Amino acid sequence: MARYIADMTDQLQPMPDDWQRALAVVAHPDDLEYGCAAAVADWTDGGRDVTYLLVTRGEAGMDTLDPATCGPLREQEQRDGAAVVGVSTVDFLDHTDGVVEYGVALRRDIAAAIRRHRPELLITLNHHDTWGGGDDRYWNTPDHVAVGRATLDAAADAGNRWIFPELVEQGLQPWGGVRWVAVAGSPEPTHAADASAGLERSVRSLLAHRTYIEALTDEDPETYCRTFLTGNAQSLAPRFGGRPAVGFELFTR
Taking the domain 2-252, which CATH number applies? Predict the structure, then answer.
């Protein structure tokens, strides 16, 4: 798998558009809403099929709610947020929130989903140790790192019938049709999708996680969501022809 590398001063290239099916694999409910929902809204508007796969149900995400109560609530908020941007299929893997482990079991589960949904574009969230760049860096969570790296590996696993042969026995034939893996939220973006048309819906999609957001911040939820998403999209505009954008680090296979 080769990587396109861009300096932070480089212009971002447009995301590929010659694909029909995408699978987005992330650790928690809200990861995609914080990361790339504006791009997803534009893609589904264009007739493309996008499926979400959540490795956990985010059950450890709120100190004020025990996991047994929090998990189902966050699952429903994720389904509601996905629907806002045109995503109807949202699957969950039931790994334990907060202690997701990179390893064979996680790779197998993601490879199985890739074989099931047969995407050309695979999307995940920042797998690097940190977010941001320069002096504005902060530590990433182990769940994000584990899921992002396992997704990169599972793209190859899914196409090799001799890796996880038990999946073939389950009727999941190899799928080597993943052409790109796009990492949202990467501190090293190389490509971008225009966020102009989907930005408003991305705000509403993140707002669907209202219970979580209200536990996270004392700010007005709508103000918080709009400020965060608009600020991120506008920060990439100088590198994308002046247009608000969602950035991706793009790997090609």
Answer: 3.40.50.10320
Q: Are 183 and 22 in contact (CB under 8 A)?
A: no
Q: What φ, ψ does residue 10 adopt, rounded to 5°?
A: -75, 150
In the block, residue with structure tokens 């993943």? 178
Tokens of 249: 């680090």
Mean pLDDT for 4-11 is: 57
Buried b / exposed e along 221-250 (16+ C-beta atoms within 10 A): beebbbebbbebbeebbebbeeebbbbbbb
Which string of DSSP letters, residue by residue, matches 101-165? --SHHHHHHHHHHHHHH--SEEEEE--SSEEEETTEEEEPPHHHHHHHHHHHHHHHHTT-TTSSH
Long-range CB contacts (within 8 A, 24+) of 225-229: 228/34, 229/34, 229/38, 229/199, 229/202, 229/203
Can you spell out the DSSP letters for 157-225? HTT-TTSSHHHHHTT--------EEEEET-SS--EEEE-TTTHHHHHHHHHTTHHHHHHH-SS-HHHHH
**pLDDT, tens digit, 9 for 90 and up, residues 50-96:** 999 999 999 999 999 999 999 999 999 999 999 999 999 999 999 99
Q: Look at residue 35 in the predicted model and tell me its pLDDT.
A: 81
Domain-by-domain residue ranges, the chain? 2-252
Q: What is the pLDDT of residue 6?
A: 42
State how far Cα 5 lies from the chain centre: 20
pLDDT in tens, 219-252: 999 999 999 999 999 999 999 999 999 999 999 9
